[in-house]
């Protein structure tokens, strides 16, 4: 099987096989979404693993945790279109830009490239009327992904990095839930591709390169300064970086899509984005407002020096709807993320 | 079910100008059928949920303006969230001009029905209930519009919320009427909101009946202009079951009407009886705050012409029992912390805190500053005449909403 694929790839490389048809931009722009992912020709194989020409893979320094799913991200830009650099917020992406995100689980996280099961492939498409979010769910045979607007759940079993069996009740979001996270002043918007969160290396097929530099070199991005002059989000799990920077990056990536002045949780007055500078608004010594029972017997969102006394960690450690945070996108505790935020709170002066 | 939807769609094509009805029937995957209808609805449409019991596994949400979500009555159409695995609420509304009516939401893990950032949001003839009775593990709010404008809550019953049954937060132009809140920690709460009329409701068997609060550290502060009138605020006798960190945990069991911070609040024509701590309590916000624009005092508060029964017979706050003994066995029906000479953070002069209470006797604690109970110099007066000022005009909702 692998040999056959290699032969096929070689044939394609030699031009012996016809080049695959390009990404179906008209399908991406059509007002009615396609019922299957294949209609967009974003991938050249039925299994949705080999990206078509025009898709550039990318990664984020600090991503959102999604029940330990592995995510592969791609940026598609229409021929000749460019993204414009912005120092804060998401890059200015042109109409036609499409963000593609594949959610998958290897059967054994110690062998991440083997027996990988795709769960869903999400698209964020920039149409003239605004951004649209679509979730395509893979069948058990991994041969077709179909649109599921109302969302779904899929049980997933895997072995974690320590070889322990794990089970997650993975939730595929409905179209409104996509927007709950991807909401900026009531309109749907991308979250991830901020210059600062892209400002890091990516292992491209032809070698590692900084993503902002790579995109600029390929003509996908204009206006970006040299990476060293651009803002940069810390890598949450790189222990060489300062603890506070990593924890703030984690909270930015996992909470701030709602907890910002224009987000779904604007009414909480708790803003966890990296731009926020006021300690009380970041939760330090802040009393809960509408946390209800989720405040438990605790008095502050973040009690400096006291992770056990902080509502933030209490809610990160819960898997109970109505208590757990984030509200969407996870059904199990992110142990490593929780440990990081606990260490950060413990390090804060009382 | 699918045939019906297709039928509805065909009908819509035939007369595109008319609103469609998207019908949902019991049976099959309730989560998918209701959520799909909520996604397919277009402005003007009605999502009609037939009588029956619907077992949901996740939250439901609506983000289309101008849609009515309608059941066959609060006993006939029941959305049960007992098996809910995700989301912070049962039903979430994030669009304008939405009506939710004639159905029940049971046992939501978080809030029952929430509207965020919605203009002209109406909740009519609903039942939101935690069916196991009062319990700290119940969801927080029953009906919960927040950061919204033009809010109508009419003929709604909420039971068992571990915070407030009916909770309106950071909103403007609000009517809460003909509704019943029972066995919640707080019955009805208006918080950080402007221009609210709360009338003809029954608030009973909660820990606290009706609360009008203003809290610091929020995008919308400076709540004002609320009228609480013609309500039955009786037998609020469920022991406060909120977790300690929750602001409503501070509400003593058996409080009828409580005003904390806030301005221009008028409490009149209510029947207030059988509340063991107080009929009406006016207090300052007592915790520290960082926001200089926040005012922690209740001011321009008028309490008059209420029918006050037996209240204050077993005050359930620290020191309450001793205070009652001192005053001959029970507390007067109206209690005010009496903070008047408080210089707010960032201000140069003391606050003027006008209070007019004619439904005495009134217990004035004369505290030196918010929450300073050790400085209390309690005195009982037949009334407090702190001046008079005009009552806010009746809240007027947009035409279509007012006609519901």
Walkthrough of the structure:
The complex is a heterodimer of chains A (350) and B (404). By secondary structure, chain A is of the alpha+beta class. Chain A folds into two domains: 17-229, no CATH class; 243-347, no CATH class. Chain A has eight helices and 14 strands. In chain A, helix 6 packs across helix 8. Chain B is mainly β and 404 residues long. Chain B has helices at residues 2-14, 30-40, 320-326, 399-402; strands at 21-24, 46-49, 52-55, 60-62, 68-70, 77-80, 89-93, 98-106, 111-116, 119-129, 143-146, 149-159, 164-169, 172-177, 180-182, 186-191, 194-199, 202-204, 208-213, 224-229, 232-234, 255-260, 263-268, 271-273, 278-283, 299-304, 307-308, 334-336, 355-357, 362-364, 379-381, 384-385. In chain B, strand 1, helix 2 and strand 2 form a beta-alpha-beta unit. Chain B is elongated, with a radius of gyration of 22 Å. Chains A and B meet through helix 3 of A and helix 2 of B.
> Proportion of β residues of chain A?
15-25%
N-to-C CA distance of chain B: 29 Å
Strand content of chain B: 35-45%
How does the helix and strand content of chain B classify structurally?
Answer: mainly beta
**Low-confidence segments of chain B, ≥5 residues, pLDDT <50?**
1-16
Structural Rg of chain B: 22 Å
Q: How can the largest sheet of chain A be summarized? A: 6 strands, antiparallel
Structural class by secondary-structure content of chain A:
alpha+beta
* Shape, principal axes of CA atoms of chain B: elongated
Describe the strand arrangement of the main beta sheet of chain A, using strand numbers: 1-2-4-5-6-7
Rg over CA atoms of chain A: 21 Å
Tally the helices of chain A: what do you get?
8
Give the SSE string of chain A.
Answer: HHEEEEEEEEEHEEHEEHEHHH
Helix share, percent of chain B: under 10%
E-strand count of chain A: 14
* Total number of beta strands of chain B: 32
Quick check: average pLDDT of chain B? Answer: 93
Looking at how many chains there are and whether they match, the oligomeric state comes to: heterodimer
Characterize the overall form of chain A. globular
Give the tally of structural domains of chain A.
2
């Amino acid at each position: 099987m692998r040999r056959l694929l290699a032969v096929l790839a070689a044939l394609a490389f030699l031009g012996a096989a016809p080049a695959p048809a390009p990404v179906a931009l008209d399908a991406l722009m059509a007002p009615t979404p396609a019922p299957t992912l294949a209609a967009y020709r974003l991938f050249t194989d039925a299994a949705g693993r080999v990206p078509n020409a025009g898709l550039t893979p990318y990664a984020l320094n600090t991503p959102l945790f999604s029940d330990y799913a592995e995510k592969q991200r791609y940026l598609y830009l229409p021929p000749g279109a460019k993204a414009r650099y912005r120092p804060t917020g998401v890059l200015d992406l042109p109409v036609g830009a499409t963000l593609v995100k594949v959610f998958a689980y290897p059967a054994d996280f110690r062998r991440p490239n083997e027996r990988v099961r795709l769960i869903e492939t999400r698209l964020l498409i920039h149409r003239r009327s605004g951004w649209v979010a679509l979730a395509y769910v893979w069948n058990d045979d991994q041969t077709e992904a179909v649109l599921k607007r109302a969302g779904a759940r899929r049980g997933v079993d895997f072995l974690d990095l320590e070889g322990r069996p794990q089970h997650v009740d993975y939730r595929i979001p409905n179209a409104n839930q996509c927007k709950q996270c991807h909401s900026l002043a009531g309109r749907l918007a991308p979250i991830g591709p901020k210059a600062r969160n892209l400002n890091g290396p990516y292992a491209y097929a032809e070698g590692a390169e900084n993503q902002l530099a790579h995109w600029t070199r390929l003509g996908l991005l204009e206006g970006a300064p040299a990476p060293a002059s651009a803002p940069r989000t810390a890598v949450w799990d790189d222990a060489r970086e300062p603890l506070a920077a990593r924890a703030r990056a984690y909270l930015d990536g996992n909470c701030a899509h709602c907890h910002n002045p224009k987000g779904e949780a604007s009414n909480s007055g708790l803003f966890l984005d990296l731009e926020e500078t006021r300690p009380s608004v970041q939760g330090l010594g802040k009393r809960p407002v509408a946390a209800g029972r989720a405040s438990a017997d605790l008095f502050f969102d973040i009690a400096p020096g006291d992770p056990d006394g902080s509502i933030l960690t209490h809610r990160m450690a819960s898997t109970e709807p109505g208590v757990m945070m984030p509200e969407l996108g996870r059904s199990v505790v992110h142990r490593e993320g929780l440990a990081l935020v606990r260490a950060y709170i413990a390090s804060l002066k009382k | 079910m699918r045939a019906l939807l297709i039928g509805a769609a065909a009908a819509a094509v035939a007369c595109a100008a008319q609103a469609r009805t998207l019908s949902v029937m019991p049976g099959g995957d309730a989560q998918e059928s209701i959520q799909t209808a909520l996604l397919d609805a277009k402005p003007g449409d009605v999502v009609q949920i037939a009588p029956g019991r619907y077992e949901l596994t996740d939250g439901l949400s609506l983000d289309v303006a101008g849609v009515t979500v309608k059941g066959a009555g609060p006993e006939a159409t029941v959305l049960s969230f007992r098996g809910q695995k995700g989301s912070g609420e049962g039903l979430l509304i994030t669009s304008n001009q939405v009506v939710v009516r004639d159905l029940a939401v049971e046992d939501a893990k978080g809030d029952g029905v929430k509207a965020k950032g919605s203009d002209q949001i109406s909740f009519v003839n609903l039942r939101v209930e935690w069916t196991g009775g009062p319990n700290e593990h119940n969801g927080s709010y029953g009906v919960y519009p927040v950061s919204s404008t033009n809010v109508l809550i009419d003929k709604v019953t909420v039971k068992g919320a571990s915070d407030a049954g009916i909770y309106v937060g950071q909103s403007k132009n609000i009517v809460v009427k003909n509704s019943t809140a029972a066995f919640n920690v707080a019955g009805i709460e208006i918080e950080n909101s402007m221009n609210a009329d709360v009338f003809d409701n029954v608030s009973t068997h909660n820990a606290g009946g009706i609360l009008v609060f203003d809290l610091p550290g929020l995008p919308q502060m400076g709540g004002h202009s609320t009228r609480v009138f013609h309500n039955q605020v009786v037998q609020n006798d469920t022991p406060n079951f909120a977790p300690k960190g929750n602001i409503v945990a501070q509400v003593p069991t058996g409080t009828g009407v409580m005003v904390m911070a806030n301005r221009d609040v008028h409490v009149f024509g209510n029947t207030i009886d059988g509340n063991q701590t107080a009929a009406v309590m006016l207090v300052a916000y007592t915790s520290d705050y960082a926001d200089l624009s926040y005012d922690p005092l209740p001011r321009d508060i008028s309490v008059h012409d209420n029918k006050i029964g037996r209240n204050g017979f077993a005050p359930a706050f620290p020191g309450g029992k001793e205070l009652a003994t001192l005053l001959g066995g029970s507390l007067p029906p109206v209690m005010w912390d009496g903070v008047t000479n408080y210089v707010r953070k960032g201000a140069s002069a003391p606050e003027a805190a006008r209070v007019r209470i004619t439904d005495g006797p009134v217990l004035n604690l004369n505290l030196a500053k918010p929450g300073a109970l050790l400085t209390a110099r309690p005195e009982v007066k037949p009334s407090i005449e702190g001046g008079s000022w005009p009552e806010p005009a009746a809240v007027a909702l947009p035409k279509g909403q007012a006609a519901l």
